[in-house]
Structures are given as structure tokens and as C-alpha cells.
């Protein structure tokens, strides 16, 4: 899963610099790729980064490991039933879609995600590109403090806050917040090759 995402970004950048992005682990992978390929990335759209550097006991890492254990112990469908019990319908639908997409590889994918290091704050500081970050203030799994730490480390970043409640009502709200923050970072950044 992680290698495939990084390879996809390599392929996308064959025709010129790309605007890379993702949510949670996807945000980590986009930033990781940008650190390794600074001249090939025009900017980053990052939603809900979950940790910096090694995951240690970050809430998202613990949640992914617990979910992998649940799938191993109960099977996919029973694990989904347990995991979605009492959660908002939109989140239950999203979990169901995402988990079923992985099929028999779900537990292994969750474990890979839970242990994959994110870029360190020092690595993020090396990225002189516009970066838009969105965070949900009511999301305990992706602490808003992580998003702000990333923004402080990055030379040209803006954070916009939203909520999971807003995301439930408007499925585009998280993407919109990320794009708006990137546009602001791009507009206020000093002129450069990617402005």
C-alpha cells in the first residue's frame, strides 16, 4: 500500500511537478514523497496528519493496530459490525467502503499503516513549497495539534480547521478546507519556481 502510493507519485511526476496530497496516512506519504523529491513537487494538500516521525503511541497508530486485531479475531464483516456500532452513518459507510476495498489484505494494511513513520518536523522544514493542511478539531485520532506542528515546521504552510461534524453534513468540507489553505499558502508565499 505505501510503496504503491509512492510509485504512483513517481509516475505522475514524469511529466512535471505535481501537487500531491492525501488524508491521514495518505498525507504522510505525500509529504514523504515530497521530502525525497523536492524538485518534483509543486505543493502539498494534506488532511488530518496523524503523527511526526515514528508513530510510537499516536492515537491513529493505536486505532489501526486495534482494528487489525479486530479483523483477525472476528473476520471482516463481524469486525465491521463491531467497529461501526454507534458511529455516525456517514462514518460507518466510509469505514465499510474502505475496509471492504482491502479485502483479505485489510489487517496487514492496517498494521503497515500503523507502523509507517511520517516525515519528521526537521524533514518537513526542508520543503519550500506551498502546503495546505486541514484538521478536524473534534477528531481525537488525528489531533489538531499535529497539523499545527506540521504547519509551524513547514516554511510555507497554512492550516484550516473544520470538524468531523461538518464533514458528516458536507462530504466536501475537508477537501475544501485543504484546498483553501493551500491557495492561501500559495498566495502569501514569496515568488518562486512553484508559485
UniProtKB/TrEMBL annotation:
It comes from the Bacteria. InterPro entries: AB_hydrolase_fold (IPR029058). This is Pimeloyl-ACP methyl ester carboxylesterase.
Amino acid at each position: 500500500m505505501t510503496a504503491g502510493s509512492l510509485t504512483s507519485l513517481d509516475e505522475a511526476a514524469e511529466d512535471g511537478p505535481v501537487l500531491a496530497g492525501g488524508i491521514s496516512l495518505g498525507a504522510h506519504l505525500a509529504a514523504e514523497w515530497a521530502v525525497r523529491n523536492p524538485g518534483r513537487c509543486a505543493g502539498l494538500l494534506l488532511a488530518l496528519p496523524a503523527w511526526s516521525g515514528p508513530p510510537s503511541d499516536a492515537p491513529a497508530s493505536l486505532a489501526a493496530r486495534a482494528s487489525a486485531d479486530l479483523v483477525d479475531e472476528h473476520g471482516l464483516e463481524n469486525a465491521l459490525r463491531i467497529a461501526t456500532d454507534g458511529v455516525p452513518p456517514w462514518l460507518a459507510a466510509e469505514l465499510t467502503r474502505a475496509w471492504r476495498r482491502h479485502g483479505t489484505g485489510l489487517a496487514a494494511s492496517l498494521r503497515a499503516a500503523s507502523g509507517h513513520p511520517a516525515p519528521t518536523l526537521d524533514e518537513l522544514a526542508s520543503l519550500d513549497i506551498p502546503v495546505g493542511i486541514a484538521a478536524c478539531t473534534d477528531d481525537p485520532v488525528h489531533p489538531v495539534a499535529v497539523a499545527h506542528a506540521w504547519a509551524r515546521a513547514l516554511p510555507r504552510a497554512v492550516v484550516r480547521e473544520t470538524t468531523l461534524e461538518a464533514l458528516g453534513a458536507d462530504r466536501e468540507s475537508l477537501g475544501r478546507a485543504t484546498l483553501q489553505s493551500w491557495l492561501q499558502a500559495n498566495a502569501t508565499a514569496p515568488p518562486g519556481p512553484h508559485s
